[in-house]
């Protein structure tokens, strides 16, 4: 089974899909979690980041491993460069801190088994992952890296983070062509801290 590479490095078409989404949430609306600005993503060597609108609902396409766990109440924003890098932030506001803690734990469980899941579902893909630790921001954030390589030569590196502030959980994904050596770990950790701090 050949995998859709849009699940890994992403594609510019995602931005077009979000632009025509049925519902758009103003980023600065009262009571609405704030999203990352393009300038707060890991810097790209040759291209500036741009962002789609803050949009209600699940992103399309869903990111690998965690996408199926996003509820219909998700709010998301898609980012891209003119080159090979894409990013995504998805935020979920739960009814209580207990539910938010459980949801963040669910996302972490899915990321813990990400490489194994990818290979089980896509025989042409080899996947490896790393855990980069917990960040001390609000109720905490956890950072992961997943490298995928395909039998036809594609190689992609993705970074994921899951963070929580009270009853709100946010997931950030950054991806581009390359391997673990190309992962901007320090920059992505900084982006994650900013994302969690900006929620409210």
Task: Outline the fold blueprint.
Layout: H1 13-19, E1 50-51, E2 55-56, E3 75-80, E4 86-93, H2 97-112, H3 114-121, E5 125-135, E6 141-150, E7 155-165, E8 168-177, H4 185-197
Antiparallel strand pairs: 1-3, 2-3, 3-4, 4-8, 5-6, 6-7, 7-8
User: How many strands, what sense, and barrel or not for the largest sheet?
Assistant: 8 strands, antiparallel
Strand content: 25-35%
Number of strands: 8
Order of helices and strands: HEEEEHHEEEEH
CATH architecture: 3-Layer(aba) Sandwich
Walkthrough of the structure:
- It is a single chain.
- The protein has about 200 residues and is of the alpha+beta class.
- The protein has one domain (about 5-195): Protein Transport Mog1p, Chain A.
- The protein contains 4 helices and 8 strands.
- The chain has helices at about 15-20, 95-110, 115-120, 185-195; strands at about 50, 55, 75-80, 85-95, 125-135, 140-150, 155-165, 170-175.
- Strands 1, 2, 3, 4, 5, 6, 7 and 8 form an 8-stranded antiparallel beta sheet that branches.
- A hairpin with a 2-residue loop joins strand 7 (about 155-165) and strand 8.
- The termini are far apart.
- About 40% of the residues are buried.
């Amino acid at each position: 089974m050949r995998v859709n590479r849009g699940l890994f490095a992403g594609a510019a078409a995602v931005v077009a899909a979000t632009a025509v989404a049925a519902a758009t949430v103003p980023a600065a609306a009262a009571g609405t979690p704030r999203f990352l600005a393009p300038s707060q993503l890991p810097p790209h060597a040759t291209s500036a980041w741009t962002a789609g609108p803050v949009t209600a609902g699940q992103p399309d396409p869903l990111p690998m491993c965690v996408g199926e766990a996003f509820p219909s109440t998700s709010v998301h924003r898609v980012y891209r460069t003119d080159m090979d890098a894409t990013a995504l932030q998805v935020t979920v506001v739960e009814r209580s801190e207990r539910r938010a803690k459980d949801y963040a734990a669910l996302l972490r469980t899915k990321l813990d088994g990400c490489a194994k899941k990818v290979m089980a579902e896509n025989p042409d893909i080899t996947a490896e992952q790393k855990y980069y630790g917990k960040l001390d921001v609000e109720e905490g954030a956890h950072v992961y890296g997943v490298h995928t390589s395909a039998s036809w030569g594609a190689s992609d590196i993705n970074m994921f983070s899951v963070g929580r502030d009270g009853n709100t959980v946010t997931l950030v994904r950054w991806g581009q062509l390359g391997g673990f050596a190309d992962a901007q770990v320090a920059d992505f950790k900084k982006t994650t801290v900013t994302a969690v701090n900006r929620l409210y």
